[in-house]
Design the sequence.
C-alpha cells in the first residue's frame, strides 16, 4: 500500500510540474530620461564644503548598472553675475569646491549635455537651528518603540518651509519630513522619528533645512507617492517633475531638482530608559 501511495505522489508531482508554463513578460522600453540630482547644501558654521551634482539617465527594468553621464558641462551663476564651474571628477559626478553662497541671492544652474541646455533657479536663505533633541519610549503612535523628537522655533516671518532628515545606520536612505509654517508661525515646534529598529546604542543624526516653496511642493508630491504604495495592479503614479527644464526642447522633461539650502545638524544616541 505504501509503495502505491508513493507512486501516486510521484505521479501528482510530475503532473503539476508539467502544468507550469513559463510566462515571459514583454516590458516596453521607455525613452531614457535625464536625472539631475542637484541638491546643494551648506551646514551652519561650515564654509568649507564641496558641492556635488550627480547626473545619470534612467535605465531599463532589467538593467543593473546605472547609466552615468560623463560629458556634461555644469555651470552655476548668481544674480550678481558671478560664475562657478563644476568639474567632472568621477563618473557622473561634478564637484564645485570653495563655493560660499550668499543669503538672499538667487542662483542659476545650467547643464549642457549633447547640445541640450537644462536650466533651473533657486534662492538661498538663511537656515534655522535645532533647539533641542529628546528621546522617549512608548509614547504617541510608537507605543513599543523609541521616539526621537527634534524641537525648533520658527522665526515668525511667514512663508517658511522646512525639511527634516533623520539618518541612522539601519536606514539605506534618510527619513524625510516636510512642513510649512501655516499653523506654527513664530512658535516652538517639533518633529518626531521612530522605527522598530531604533534600539539602545543607535545614533540618530538630524538635519533641519530651510527650503523654498517650490522644493517643499516637490517633496510633498514625491513623499505622497512613496507612501501611497498600492497592490501590483494599482494604477501607476503620475510623474513628479522638478524645476529643471530643457531650454532646447520643452517636451523633454527631466527627473530631479535643483535646490540650495543651509542646514543645522545634531546627533543623539539612544540610551536606556530609566524605570
Sequence:
Amino acid at each position: 500500500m505504501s509503495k502505491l501511495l508513493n507512486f501516486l505522489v510521484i505521479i501528482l508531482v510530475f503532473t503539476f510540474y508539467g502544468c507550469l508554463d513559463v510566462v515571459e513578460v514583454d516590458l516596453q522600453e521607455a525613452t531614457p530620461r535625464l536625472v539631475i540630482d542637484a541638491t546643494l547644501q551648506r551646514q551652519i558654521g561650515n564654509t568649507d564644503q564641496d558641492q556635488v551634482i550627480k547626473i545619470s539617465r534612467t535605465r531599463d527594468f532589467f538593467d543593473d548598472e546605472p547609466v552615468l553621464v560623463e560629458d556634461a558641462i555644469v555651470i552655476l551663476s548668481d544674480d550678481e553675475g558671478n560664475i562657478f564651474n563644476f568639474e567632472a571628477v568621477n563618473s557622473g559626478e561634478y564637484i564645485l569646491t570653495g563655493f560660499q553662497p550668499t543669503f538672499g541671492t538667487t542662483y542659476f544652474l545650467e547643464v549642457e549635455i549633447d547640445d541640450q541646455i537644462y536650466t533651473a533657479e533657486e534662492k538661498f536663505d538663511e537656515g534655522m537651528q535645532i533647539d533641542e533633541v529628546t528621546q522617549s519610549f512608548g509614547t504617541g503612535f510608537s507605543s513599543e518603540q523609541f521616539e526621537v523628537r527634534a524641537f525648533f522655533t520658527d522665526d515668525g516671518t511667514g512663508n517658511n518651509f522646512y525639511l527634516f532628515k533623520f539618518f541612522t545606520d539601519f536606514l539605506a536612505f534618510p527619513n524625510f519630513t516636510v512642513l510649512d509654517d501655516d499653523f506654527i508661525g513664530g512658535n516652538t515646534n517639533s518633529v518626531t522619528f521612530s522605527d522598530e529598529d531604533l534600539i539602545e546604542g543607535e545614533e540618530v543624526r538630524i538635519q533641519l533645512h530651510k527650503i523654498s516653496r517650490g522644493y517643499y511642493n516637490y517633496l510633498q508630491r514625491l513623499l505622497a507617492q512613496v507612501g501611497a504604495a498600492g497592490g501590483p495592479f494599482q494604477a501607476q503614479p503620475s510623474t513628479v517633475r522638478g524645476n529643471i527644464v530643457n531650454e532646447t526642447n520643452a517636451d523633454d522633461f527631466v527627473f530631479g531638482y535643483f535646490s540650495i539650502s543651509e542646514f543645522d545638524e545634531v546627533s543623539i544616541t539612544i540610551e536606556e530608559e530609566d524605570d
